[in-house]
């Protein structure tokens, strides 16, 4: 698939993935991923910062012929959810929830700037120069995949990328979302099951109406409908080579995407907390970022859940996320973090090993050698 040695994609994992992690996966024969959701595409230097990441990625490759074997990931959520700044009431509610969680640390000076600006914002409001420059940059570097989470980009974006030999993938959490994405002409569907760590990518249904389909059920539904014409890639709860082999044996499945399995590798940005707390379960929570995400249910997260049992109206996605990150720094305790991980976390591989070593273990398991 896509000329890869092994049909294994690395999950983008914003905030955890690094260029070294992406290049290690690509060097090993898979598809490395570079998360770009944190880049504010409206900024004058945004496009050059992406160029810098791509150049760095290439510099870490063993073979220049692998330079296209990468997935660039953007967030494409509905821009209207970030249209209005937080109200005074929302900010007050946020402090009610988070002040006790941060052991009553003074959060009065925490600000709420917008972060994680949607790709849709660039498409619809520009600057047009940045949009054109980004498409030109992508046409120049021609990554094999450009993927979108939380939604589908414009037809212009899809057509521009795919006319330059770049396959557009979209994360879907339901058959309806898969049908919508397919109707726009994308070439790949990443089937994000409910087991998956990180932000839930649903974009047609609200969280309350989300079926919470498992990776297996979702993949079967989507592969049956689109497996003969599109790339179908399951993601969520895939923690070893036997899981990979099982999914690849399903009719219509092209590859798998794995992320949590690489959390404890030396190339990831996760701190030592996860290595010491393999016993922790995961949970879904929206209070941290403003969008539902699966993370470790740490004592800190337990406190946030308890403090927000009444489901208070908090600042929108992006605003509340930036405030949370500032609060973590201000409070000075990195254990009060937002440790995104899938339900397979307790059987995490790595223990500080290199990503290439973990990848090879997956391959050996997949081939039945382990």
Q: In whole angstroms, how far apart are the ends? A: 24 Å
- Which strand order spans the largest sheet, edge to edge or round the barrel? 2-3-4-5-6-8
Total strands: 11
Largest sheet: 6 strands, parallel
Pfam families: NMO
Protein name: Nitronate monooxygenase
Cofactor: FMN
Keywords: Flavoprotein, FMN, Monooxygenase, Oxidoreductase
Observed structural traits:
370 residues; alpha/beta; TIM Barrel; 11 strands; oxidoreductase; FMN; Nitronate monooxygenase; NMO
What is the topology?
Elements (H helix, E strand, L loop, with lengths): L7 E3 L8 H9 L4 E4 L10 H14 L10 E6 L12 H14 L17 H7 L2 H14 L3 E5 L5 H9 L3 E6 L2 H9 L4 E5 L5 E2 L15 H12 L4 E5 L5 H8 L7 E3 L14 H4 L5 E4 L7 E4 L2 H9 L11 H13 L23 H12 L4
Parallel strand pairs: 1-9, 2-3, 3-4, 4-5, 5-6, 6-8
Antiparallel strand pairs: 7-11, 10-11
Helix pairs in contact: 1-2, 2-5, 3-11, 7-8, 9-13
